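How a chain folds remains the central question behind the approach discussed here. In the encoding step, the backbone of a single protein was reduced to a row of integers, each denoting a local shape. We regard such an encoding as a compact summary of how the chain folds. The sequence in question and its structure tokens are set out directly beneath this paragraph:

___
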Amino acid sequence: MRHLWSLIAGVVIAPLAWAVVAFGQTVMGEVYTAGAPTGYSSKVLLGAGVLVGAGLIVGLIASLRVSPVGPLLVALLYLGSSALLIFAPKTGADVFDRVQKDVLGHDVMTITPLKSGIIPVLGGVLLIAVFSGGRWRVWPGTATADVATTTTTTDWTATPVPAATTFDTTATTTESTSSFTPVSPAGATTDTTASPWGPPPSR
């Protein structure tokens, strides 16, 4: 679906951007016909603003992460028009050499962007979108498959297991006491609290 919307955007943007560029160049051409202006001119500001607007229009499909179908269509139209003017100049002039009268007080020539080279430049820029593999892939999260989780209930019977018998395994410890008492050597003092690592007893 996004390829279709991109295609529609390309069909709309291709002639719109061309017309805006042609208008901007017409205004700028009128300013510089009598020579370079020596001061501020509102026409220069208008022409420059219109050309910037044309760049923003083309940027909608050239820079944003949209489907490359639209940019590809516009690139083919622009580059094809340039090729027609190069290899069949008479036919190209017959097709594109038109004058739109009184567009906001200006006579706009539609062939001007093609002869100035702006159209093939824009076509080359838009052609880059074709080589971006990420733009051909579906955006993350846009094509979420509706996965239905089906819970299958199986009737089963379980045989009850009797509780394990607990045996009393208490061990009986028998303590045996011995009446044997060790006898120390004569004269020796038995120190039961001395450390085993102390000095040996005196003899």
Summary: Strands lie at 99-103, 106-109. Confidence is low (pLDDT under 50) at residues 143-154, 169-180. The helical segments are 2-33, 42-62, 69-87, 89-96, 112-116, 118-127, 133-136. The CA atoms of residues 165 and 192 lie 49 Å apart.
